[in-house]
Design a protein that fits this description.
The complex is a heterodimer of chains A (140) and B (435). In chain A, strands 2-3-1-4-6-5 form a 6-stranded antiparallel beta sheet. Chain A has 4 helices and 6 strands; from the N terminus they run βαββαβαββα. Classes of the chains: A alpha+beta (140), B alpha/beta (435).
Chain lengths: 140, 435
């Protein structure tokens, strides 16, 4: 129960993000979700797309540094407290969350993406709490 | 007021100086040949015997010594006397792997301190002065040399060492320091600090500053003179030859007089090694003339400068050298510390990084900054900021251990550091150190 996320190393300079997203568009990669973490020097662009294998190959070919990480996509309802509930479940299971970001699609609904220290433990805890999770194919 | 510390030397006629140099050189070469196997081998390889050297005219026949020789001979290979005759060791500042250790007999310490005393006297120092030495004490030659010179002149010496700026300023005020010795960047820093503490230059008694161990500009000189209310003078030296005081500026503030009765200077073409006529720009080479423990013949400093025997308004006849205008190797002097790009490369390779890097040196508020840009290898990439910043930190630490100064490390994407066709540009020095 996980989703493949591609992370791309991008220098924190004017135009670099535009360059990278244009590159992605030119290679017909359809972004479903995206988040950026940044420092003064560099940023990490994290993306979820329909064909991660080909997308990574294209990015590497284009000279980008990338890595693929398995992340969890937990369904989230449109009610107050639903994110807190998920985080509490993870916390109770001693799972460390590295980062999280939201993702919404008309077809699949709303999800939170979680990068955690232990996917198995996290997935089991979420399943145990009745929280639905998505696979790659569920999102497209 | 005493104008010269050793007038008979400092104002000697060229003829007398030559005679003295020739006499000393013959003895020095013999001393080296008999006691330093390393250099004897170099001379034998070149087919030169001590008898071939009858005066400075013959100096060009002798082989050069370089920093590489000093490293190879580390630590005792160039020692020319028994250790029991030595009383002191000094060493270059914190450059692991490139460290130079110099030995001194009491006679060597004396001649070195004489040189520093000449420098202090040249800026108006007498036994009525209070000389604050804010160069580092310890292995670094700055503190020890100026401390000894100050004693010889008879100044009341404040052996402050560097750092603890508030205390420096307090002593400077309360004990009425009149002469300040430190690196120019530290002088500039003290100048800023007194302003922050609400102290005005006229609250201080400083009249002169002797600033060396790193390159500085005329602009910096004016800034320091204004902020501290003194006249700022340059001083030149290197651990290999003894320390500060090899050459010093006089009241004319126009070039540094070389203590050529102890250190004979030549200018050579760094490519061919050929000696160039006076007035040519080239690499400065020093030959010690009367050192006992660590005599160096034809030591290549890698500093590029010009020599001139033009008449000086101070009355000294000692030959003058210009401020170094650059280096014939890639050494950088950053915050007074010698840094070679190859040291940075060594750390990168050892830590598993690409050896494609760029060093950027700049000066902000009169303090040098060192930024190192390193290309990230694809296999090192992790998708958390935490791990990438930890990598930058670890790399900066490893460099600090190697260099002795703290760089700022920036990870960049692969192939973003420009690769030039011929020689790679590894260093961008944005400091305008040479006018």
């Amino acid at each position: 129960m996980s989703v493949k996320q591609i992370s791309v190393f991008i220098e924190n300079k004017k135009g670099k993000l535009a360059e990278a997203t244009r590159f992605i568009a030119d290679h017909n990669i359809n972004l479903r979700a995206l988040s950026i973490a940044d420092t003064q020097d560099f940023g990490i662009l994290r993306i979820i797309c329909d064909d991660p294998k080909n997308a990574q190959a294209a990015l590497n070919e284009g000279g980008y540094i990338t890595t693929v990480t398995d992340v969890l996509a937990a369904a989230i309802s449109d009610t107050p407290g639903s994110l807190a509930t998920i985080l509490e479940v993870l916390s109770d299971a001693d799972v460390v969350v590295e980062y999280t970001y939201a993702f919404n699609s008309s077809k699949a609904g709303a999800y939170m993406i979680f990068r955690v220290d232990d996917n198995q433990v996290a997935a089991a805890a979420l399943a145990g709490a009745g929280i639905a999770m998505a696979n790659q194919e569920d999102l497209f | 007021m005493k104008k010269y510390f050793q007038p008979e030397i400092e104002t000697a006629s060229l003829e007398d100086m030559r005679a003295l140099q020739n006499e000393k050189l013959v003895k020095q070469v013999k001393h080296v040949y008999e006691n330093v196997e390393y250099y004897r081998n170099l001379m034998d390889e070149k087919g030169v015997k001590p008898e071939d050297i009858k005066g400075v005219e013959d100096l060009h026949k002798l082989p050069f010594l370089t920093k590489a020789d000093l490293r190879e001979a580390y630590p005792y290979g160039l020692l020319a006397t028994d250790l029991k005759n030595c009383v002191r060791i000094q060493s270059t500042s914190g450059t692991t792997g490139k460290r130079v250790v110099a030995f001194y007999t009491q006679g060597d310490v004396d001649l070195w301190e004489d040189c520093c005393a000449r420098a202090i006297t040249a800026v108006g120092g007498t036994n009525e002065d209070v000389c604050q030495v804010a160069y580092g004490y310890g292995l670094f030659t700055g503190g020890a040399g100026m401390n000894g010179g100050s004693h010889k002149v008879g100044c009341l010496t404040l052996p402050m060492s560097s750092g603890n700026t508030e205390r420096q300023i307090q002593f400077m005020r309360d004990l009425h320091a009149t002469i300040l010795c430190c690196t120019p960047s530290y002088a500039a820093y003290i100048g800023e600090s007194i302003k922050d503490m609400g102290v005005k230059p006229e609250d201080l008694d400083l009249k002169a500053g002797i600033f060396g161990a790193e390159p500085w500009t005329e602009e910096m000189r004016r800034d320091i003179e204004k902020s501290l209310g003194l006249k700022a003078y340059d001083i030149y030296g290197l651990t290999e030859t003894s320390g500060p005081g090899v050459a010093f500026e006089c009241e004319a503030q126009k070039g540094m007089h070389i203590n050529e009765d102890h250190f004979y200077a030549e200018i050579i073409d760094p490519e061919t090694g050929e000696v160039l006529p006076e007035g040519s720009k080239g690499e400065l080479v020093f030959t010690s003339l009367d050192k006992e423990a660590f005599p160096l013949l034809r030591y290549r400093t890698r500093d590029i400068c010009v020599l001139s025997r033009e008449k000086c308004s101070c009355g000294r006849t000692l030959i003058k050298m210009s401020k170094p205008m650059g280096r014939s190797d890639d050494m950088l002097i950053i915050r007074g510390v010698n840094v070679f790009p190859s040291q940075i490369e060594t750390v990168l390779i050892k830590e598993g990084y690409s050896s494609n890097y760029l060093i950027e040196v700049d000066r902000e508020n009169n303090t040098d900054t060192l930024d190192v840009y390193v290309e990230l290898n694809p296999e090192q990439f992790s998708d958390t900021v935490k791990s990438l910043t930890a990598m930058e930190k670890a790399l900066a630490n490893a460099m600090k251990i190697m260099l002795g100064i703290n760089p700022k490390v920036h990870l960049v994407a692969p192939k973003t550091i420009t690769r030039s066709e011929g020689k790679a540009v590894r260093v961008i020095d944005k400091r305008k150190l040479h006018d």
